[in-house]
Amino acid sequence: MMQIFHFEELPSTQDKVFELFQSKTQAPFVVVADRQTKGRGRLGREWISETGRSLTLSYGCILPTKNLEALSLIVGLGVRDRLHDADVKLKWPNDLMIEEKKVGGILVESRSQGDQAQVAIGVGLNLLSLQSAPYFGINQKVAAEEVAGAIESRLNAFINGGFGPFQREYESVLWNKGQTVTLKIDDEKKEVRILGVSDRGWLKTEHNGELFLSDQGEILVGS
Ligand code: BTN
User: Fold this and answer.
1) What is the pLDDT of residue 43?
2) What is the pLDDT of residues 100-126, one digit of tens each?
3) Residues whose CB falls within 8 Å of the CB of residue 164, separated by 6 or more in sequence, listed in order
4) What's the pLDDT score for residue 66?
5) What's the pLDDT score for residue 107?
6) C-beta of 13 in contact with ligand 1 (< 6 A)
7) Is the C-beta atom of 107 inside 6 A of ligand 1?
């Protein structure tokens, strides 16, 4: 049975995961906080959440280092499994969206030791729209246990079979599939049409008949 550590307040559930790994806590485990004072997002961004309106949790697990690619895509599918709103789409590589509004995000951080890695999978979900920031919510109360259970079952399948078996399913919920968007890689921006993902979870796009596969980058919203 997976252990759940619940805290009223933490700087970040991600840091707590690595502290627990240091003190030899048996993985997998989950860290949940009612409030984060220093929540972080991808690319060094701040993650804003509010008590009672947000779900902030991190799932700590040990994974083969080679399995880390595409992990955030799999976690996105897992989180989505627990949401009632079928309109929630996954914006590659790891945002949960309702149309143009981001309602959740996933942050994967890892420390690898040879072929094994300690992994902290952070999930931030706006259950209700926030009051202090213009962030939209899914209008559903989801328990941390439910989300953690869904991540766990998706992970098991992923560890056994890789991303390939999830490719079509991921594409069926891929945000803005078929649309032309701006893809930003490093400091370069280019207009591309989203085609799907590869069997490794790389983003597949097209521009003037030329095909691109990207393992990094960000799709800009509202562009
Ligand atoms: C993103 O969209 O950039 C990812 C956001 C991830 C936020 C979650 S909230 C729980 C966990 N603890 C953190 O400090 N960040 C992640």
Assistant:
1) 87
2) 999 999 999 999 988 999 999 999 999
3) 199
4) 85
5) 97
6) yes
7) yes
Separation of alpha carbons 141 and 151, rounded Å? 17
Contact 80, 87 (CB under 8 A): no
Nearest to 149 by CA among 201, 52, 69, 75: 75
Record the pTM. 0.96
- Closest ligand 1 atom to 41 CA: 3
Residue 126: phi and psi, rounded to 5, are -85, 105
Q: Is 106 in the pocket of ligand 1 (CB under 6 A)?
A: yes
User: 99-133: buried (b, 16+ CB within 10 Å) or exposed (e) per residue?
Assistant: eeebbbbbbbbbeeeeeebbbbbbbbbbbbbbeee
Ligand 1: does its nearest atom lie under 6 Å from the Cβ of 56? yes
Q: Can you tell me which atom of ligand 1 is nearest the CA of 123?
A: 8
**How is the beta sheet containing 180-185 ordered, strand by strand?**
210-214, 203-207, 188-197, 180-185, 218-220
Residue 46 is given by DSSP the state: B
- Count of beta carbons in the 10 Å neighbourhood of residue 55: 23
What is the mean pLDDT of the segment spanning 141-152?
96
Structure tokens belonging to residue 34: 């009612």
Contacts of 168 (CB under 8 A, 6+ apart): none
Strand partners, 22: none
Q: Which residue shows structure tokens 């690898």?
A: 112
